[in-house]
Automatic annotation (TrEMBL), chain A:
It is an enzyme of class 2 (transferase). It holds the Pfam family Pribosyltran. Residues 7-156 form the Phosphoribosyltransferase domain. InterPro entries: PRTase-like, PRTase_dom, PyrR, PyrR_bifunctional. A motif (PRPP-binding) lies at residues 97-109. Homodimer and homohexamer; in equilibrium. Belongs to the purine/pyrimidine phosphoribosyltransferase family. PyrR subfamily. It catalyses: UMP + diphosphate = 5-phospho-alpha-D-ribose 1-diphosphate + uracil. One of its GO terms (molecular function) is uracil phosphoribosyltransferase activity. Its EC number is 2.4.2.9. Keywords: Glycosyltransferase, RNA-binding, Transcription, Transcription regulation, Transcription termination, Transferase. This is Bifunctional protein PyrR.
Automatic annotation (TrEMBL), chain B:
Transmembrane segments: none annotated. It comes from Fructobacillus tropaeoli. This is Carbamoyl phosphate synthase small chain. GO terms for molecular function: carbamoyl-phosphate synthase (glutamine-hydrolyzing) activity. PANTHER family: CARBAMOYL-PHOSPHATE SYNTHASE SMALL CHAIN (PTHR43418:SF7), MULTIFUNCTIONAL TRYPTOPHAN BIOSYNTHESIS PROTEIN-RELATED (PTHR43418).
Length: 175, 359
């Protein structure tokens, strides 16, 4: 069966724009803000939000990317390798972190990211921004900033494509 | 029959009369768009104004049921270079001439509209009248006429009415609502209640809306009572709010910015507009006689979200602390490009988010 496009390039851009305004609204501006993108696509989305913040406020918000594969509880080789060079580790102590991911599903990736972040330092607060919330949470986690709520069936898949990595911007439901 | 347009500064332009043989007074402005004369003529923002069309031929599309922007046109006159003859043999078919006759609005064609528009670009909008004979009496009448500043009162609904749907409950505060906005809200299946601009905060909140739209409208926003600004200041903190045209100017006033009259009004759709945050460019229909004064805008309170790249003017603002935003242009098209109608999608996403977090 054909894939169903639920967000095209234009609506994806607008969702990121809206998230950016909401971050500024919540954080009362760009002070002490750090964006942390969850690899792979969350990293690109975090950079796009940072670009928007720069256009609007002429501020450069630091962006860090983390790979949480080894922190997942459903991963056999759970460990503590963030996939980060020490040089890429920002000082997150007392900062306001916005975690950025493409899809929020069970919440397990987010939990893993929280573990990883807290291992690096003690931020003032951590918020979560996702492009798509597809439901079916298995942990008590919710997003603060949602680009689009897309109710899905458990067995459906959401495929997010970003131009920087996949060559195009889209969100599709794969049956 | 030869008729004449007299401007306040004494300039006279002659042409042939069409539409109603009436004598009217109004403020004359010009429109540079190449399409959409019916939507423009019926747009309530032109209450009390006369329009000169830069488009060389006007009327070739006739008049259509789906292109009304209000039930009754509020303009005072239509000036064109060339009036297209449209057959009205087919039943139910209306042309511009008959339409204007029906609404008692005079028209003038075979006018040197290029010269007239160049003149108006220099002088700005002027009082004007369309008459049969140019004499001292006609000029005296024009000079003595005081144009109303009660256009919103004249245009907006005095009573609440509903445009029901099954989706989010959106309240539209009517300052001279154009139908294009209702059509878009219909596309989103919104459950719409249109309220008069004299509505109180309590009346709005009792209806338990999910979002507020401040509509487009005619005239100077500063001619409206202060109660409107008080209403906006409360509502903007309660739920998502979208301002359009006059509604945008009012949102700015309610948040401490000031409004200036433009030296020459801009009515057209050929200015590129930039969304600052994404750097994207688009075109949209504009109809504006006023603009936010750049220096009066408090950057700690408001973001500038959009700019006109031709004159640099502010075309959109957003509150820093609340999901309330507004644009000077008309994202509903009608007439004009639909490139900006994502503004409505943004509004409804914001409303969906608000409803989810508050249910």
């Amino acid at each position: 069966m054909a894939n169903k496009v639920v967000l095209d390039q234009d609506s994806m851009q607008r969702a990121l724009t809206r998230i950016t305004y909401e971050i500024l609204e919540r954080n009362k501006g760009g002070q002490n803000l750090i964006l942390v993108g969850i690899k792979t696509r969350g990293e690109y989305l975090a950079h796009r939000i940072a670009d928007r913040l720069e256009q609007l406020e002429q501020v450069q918000i630091p962006v860090m990317a983390i790979d949480v594969t080894n922190y997942r509880d459903d991963h056999l080789d759970s460990g503590d390798d963030l996939g980060l060079d020490p040089a890429e580790k920002l000082n997150i102590a007392n900062q306001n972190i916005v975690l950025v991911d493409d899809v929020l599903f069970t919440g397990r990736t987010t939990r893993a990211a929280l573990d990883a972040l807290i291992q690096i330092g003690r931020p003032q607060a951590i918020a979560l921004a996702v492009l798509v919330d597809r439901g079916h949470r298995e942990l008590p986690i919710r997003a603060d900033f949602v680009g689009k709520n897309i109710p899905t069936a458990q067995n459906e898949k959401i495929k997010v494509k970003v131009k920087e990595f996949d060559g195009e911007d889209s969100v599709e439901i794969v049956h | 029959m030869e008729r004449h347009l007299i401007l306040e500064d004494g300039t006279v332009f002659s042409g042939q009369g069409f539409g109603a043989p009436a004598t009217t007074f109004g403020e004359i402005i010009f429109d540079t768009a190449t399409s959409g004369y019916q939507e423009t003529i019926t747009n309530p923002i032109y209450d009390g104004q006369m329009i000169v069309f830069a488009m060389p031929v006007v009327g070739a599309d006739g008049i259509h049921a789906e292109a009304y922007e209000s039930t009754t046109p509020k303009i005072r006159g239509v000036v064109v270079h060339d009036l297209a003859e449209v057959s009205t043999n087919r039943q139910r078919r209306m042309n511009l001439d008959r339409f204007l006759q029906h609404h008692n609005i005079p028209g003038l064609y075979e006018v040197d509209t290029r010269k007239l528009i160049r003149h108006l670009r220099e002088t700005g909008p002027q009082k004007a009248t369309i008459v049969d004979v140019v004499d001292d009496h006609a000029v005296d009448q024009l000079v003595a006429t005081v144009l109303t500043n009660k256009q919103v009162q004249n245009t907006a609904t005095p009573k609440a009415y509903a445009n029901p749907g099954h989706g989010f409950h959106i309240i539209v505060i009517d300052f001279g609502l154009k139908h294009g906005i209702l059509r878009v809200l219909g596309d989103y299946d919104a459950n719409v209640t249109v309220l008069p601009y004299t509505t109180t905060v309590d009346e709005v909140l009792t209806l338990d809306p999910d979002g507020i739209i401040l509509s487009t409208g005619p005239g100077n926003p500063e001619d409206l009572p202060d109660s409107v600004l008080t209403l906006i200041r409360v509502l903007q903190t309660k739920m998502p709010l979208l301002g359009l045209g006059l509604g945008h100017e009012l949102l700015a006033l309610a948040n401490g910015a000031e409004i200036q009259a433009l030296p020459a009004e801009y009515h057209g759709m050929n200015h590129p507009i930039q969304e600052i945050i994404s750097q994207q460019l688009f075109y949209a229909r504009q109809g504006r006689g006023y603009v936010i004064d750049e220096d009066s805008l408090d950057g700690k309170k408001l973001f500038v979200t959009h700019r006109d790249l031709v004159d640099g003017s502010i075309q959109g603002i957003r509150l820093r602390d609340n999901p309330a935003f507004s644009v000077q242009f008309f994202p509903d098209g009608a007439p004009g490009p639909l490139e900006a109608n994502g503004i409505f999608a943004d509004f409804f996403e914001t409303v969906a988010d608000y409803v989810q977090k508050n249910s």
